[in-house]
């Protein structure tokens, strides 16, 4: 006989399936983008965000709180049981290696067999502790405050307090303030707001460095290999190659386009940074926004990013 709670869980799951239909959402977004392009109109930020979120939900299966809680509980029980088994095996091995031990040994149980079993159990323990690497990265998105706000709302449900509908108590308090001036209260201390993403990496580099990297790129038209005249020049042993490489004929890398992109960035960066710095992990005082010094070589940039990702993984493992 089915339990009423089971029916409620099934009903909730079916409602989620109806609400989260990423394939249909993605198709609908594509139609809207096509319509904007056909009309020559600008694609709205809401549509950009909807397109990204639909693609993410198509790629990564939705898991409700009950599913995640059940998986975590199962892993915790398994980890506890494996830890107990390892302790028992280690005690058994100690007794085997103790010449004064009076415990009867089984014929097929040898120290080698027990050591192998301990290694196997420890390997299972390590496997449980490994975090599944199935995350995602959005490159060059969001690019402005509006996109960042809409993306956060889509991922975590967070909205600006001013955008929320007032509660009955808040409406009554506002009406009362018309009659009686409220007692002044100190503003509560600001805390970091949990975000729907783990980190935002902001690459800082000077304009001169960006220009040098963009204008120094070269391409081998025969095999589409990309070079840089300073950072990654072709081998001098292949002299014909030096004659083949040519500047990349890409309008997006032209001087005029770079200036336009810098102007757009300057206009949007302040609001975007102010929004992002509100979020983070309060327990570890880790801000969502991390600025990376991208003016160095590729190895230094890689080391900075790797260090940040290690901190995120360690924080997730502790929680």
DSSP helix count? 11
Order of helices and strands: HHHHHHHEHEEHEHEEEH
The major pleated sheet works out as: 3 strands, antiparallel
Give the overall silhouette.
extended
Averaged pLDDT: 83
Amino- and carboxy-terminal Cα gap = 37 Å
**How are the strands of the largest sheet arranged?**
3-2-4
As a percent range, the share of strand residues is 5-15%
Low-confidence stretches: 4-18
* Count of spatially separate domains: 2
Structural class: mainly alpha
Number of strands: 7
Summarize the amount of helix as a percent range: 55-70%
Give structural notes.
This protein has a 3-stranded antiparallel beta sheet with strand order 3-2-4. The chain has 319 residues and is mainly alpha-helical. The longest helix has 33 residues, at 65-97. It has 2 domains: 4-140, no CATH class; 200-318, Rossmann fold (3-Layer(aba) Sandwich). It is extended, with a radius of gyration of 29 Å. It contains 11 helices and 7 strands.
Quick summary of this structure?
With 319 residues, this protein is mostly helical. It contains eleven helices and seven strands.
